[in-house]
Amino acid sequence: MIAEIGLGLLWLAAGLAVLQSVLGGLALKLTHRPDLGGAIKPVAIAQGVLATCAFVVLVYLFMISDMSVKLVADNSHSEKPWLYKFSGSWGNHEGSMLLWVTILALSGGGIALLERRVRRDTLIATLMAQGLIALGFYAFLLFSSNPFARLNPAPSDGNGLNPLLQDPGLALHPPTLYLGYVGMSVAFSFAVGALLTKDVGPAFARAMRPWVLGAWVFLTLGITAGSYWAYYELGWGGWWFWDPVENASLMPWLAATALLHSVTVLATRDALRAWTIMLAVVAFSMSMIGTFLVRSGILTSVHAFAVDPQRGTFILALLLIYIGAALTLFALRVGTVREGATFEPVSREAALVLNNLFLTVILGVVLIGTLYPIVAQAMGQQISIGPPYFNPAAGSVALLLVVAMAAGPLMRWRRDGAGALMRRMALPLALGAVVMGLVRLMAPEISILSWLGLSAAALAAAGSLAPLWGRNLRRTPLFTWGMVVSHLGVAVALAGMATDTAFMKERLVAVSEGEAADVGPYSVRLVMVAPVIGPNWTALEATMEAQRGTSRPFTLKPQARNYSNPPTDTSEAAISTRWDGQLYAVLGKQNADGSWQLRLWWKPWVTLIWLGGGLIALGGVLSLLGRLWRERRGLGEATHA
Amino acid sequence: MMIRGLILLILAGLSAPVLADSRMDAAPYAYVQLKDPAKERQAKELMATIRCLVCQGQSIADSDAEMAGDMRSLIRERIEKGEKPEAIRAWLVERYGDWVTYAPPTRGSSLVLWGLPLVLLMFGTGLAMSRIRRKAR
Predict the structure, then answer these.
(1) Residue-wise pLDDT tens digits, A189-219
(2) Hey, is the C-beta of B136 within 8 angstroms of any chain A C-beta?
(3) Does the domain spanning A1-161 belong to CATH 1.10.10?
(4) Is A544 in contact with A526 (CB distance < 8 Å)?
């Protein structure tokens, strides 16, 4: 009965999405009927509430392990710890799509409830666009991915959740990325609304910016967390693989980063109007392509896509309809967008245009590198694209971008002098050059990309802090702090990537209990290997003692785990974080002579990668708070006056 | 989203040895490094760009699959004998096709991979410059 209630709620929410779209369309046409526009807000709020209830019902079904529901039986098990029953509700296709549309409906309700900056007709058009997007996903859920489908007869227990997904990271990772994807759809709805009502200007940009910033923060966190998850869970010490699924999350981030900067130009200087709208369309398209790549099964292979074509075709159709409609609308209406304010070749605006250009080229590299193998496979040619393409192609442009990032904040709006800029950049440039020379002298063997990466990181770190130079730090606005922290985060992450790539030490050894092996500055001794038992797994656990020189030793305990439901072997790496890097140990198989295979890595400064990611996101949060706070104060003053 | 792909990829990587476990010891250089660090680095760089054929989107440098171990061993042995990495890659491509290398072919239609970003960069630069100049006037 409960599952049927959930399905009913979903149908009702879909019905309200139809109503929301129709009301919006009518309100825009029949301007003499203001009551139509007035009704759209409560409808959007009700849609958000109903979708949330449907999602709560699904979570409840997972928590009580109702095995008569097919989705629960396929993906859960009654003996699973409660956290993984809970997170398991979105660790599958149907559940994750329900989460997607729930977040979408909730943000639609949020706009209806809170948004007061944009014109009334733009708000109505925005909510109409939101309704139309939600409608596509309701249709997808109800017609091809029903999460509440029953199973008759009900099995005695479920299939269990993949052990690799039984990790606290899973509870947070997908919702974080979805919040980012959906935030992009809100930005897109705003762009569509502003195009429809010919309202592209600073006010619209200020309304759109918090959504872009928020979505960007979540995408940043999602990618950072995903990278760390892969790092510790896969057991080989890698943190980025240019895997299509990773690229699917990177592409919306790149577009969102470009949009974030151009929307600021539009809000502050009223320039880059048409381009900002275009980027909003691109960012949403990338979110849709990301969803399509992961959800359609096309990545497994083109053939898997063809075997179960319904879902894939459905979501491909959604993708084409939305992107096609958005581009058509853009083409039809871009002529009505008046040209914005002007600026000189040397100015903050021009630097931000450069930022957008580089980000777009990187996006182009990732997009074509991800899609090309799929197209080639469809045409009967099997090729692979990986680091040998992405690293030089995206990396070289990324280095240019980092240099532009260091210079941009030091430039004035509208016009600036090249000589003055060089004086302000003197210290960062000098620091970059010093690092460049030192690294060349001390480590001539490292790759060019790592070498340039380290130099650019030094330049960018100094450049990103430079805007604070000579300022009263207490009076510096919060959003300026946000920019500084985010830019510093980019430099920090880049330094981590370059250092780990260049100086990481690997040691593969077979040792018996009591023996030791050296890796980097550490000596690691295998004390013993013993069986241990967990809630739903058994494992062999190695106890290792690591020591650097004569300093105090510490213990590492990597495991080789064996899960029972479903039966799977996994290896749990032991990672010890030191101040200057991480020691990473994996327990392998036992050899015939009784010795154990160990994989040991010393990864200097590798933690900077995720620290940098965290700083980037923190900067976004500071910026968001700073903007909202200032606007609130501004509004308060306006009402008092 | 990334998680699901990685799962698939790990599942394939982990289940492969279970399915194909020959109960033999791993190939000699599957989990053993070369003595010469320069040669080991060469081998490692090559391995990171060779696809594990029985896995889902992993290189042989990041896989526990038996076949990945065999291929690592083969690469290390050939590097030890003094063969050049690109010669080994060519040999692997000849044997398994373009699918096996993460370095896309630099011929025919694959050139679009390098051409398109360049065109995008030039077109974008041109567009930005023309707009800025027009505006400045």
Answers:
(1) 999 999 988 888 888 899 899 999 999 999 9
(2) yes
(3) no
(4) yes
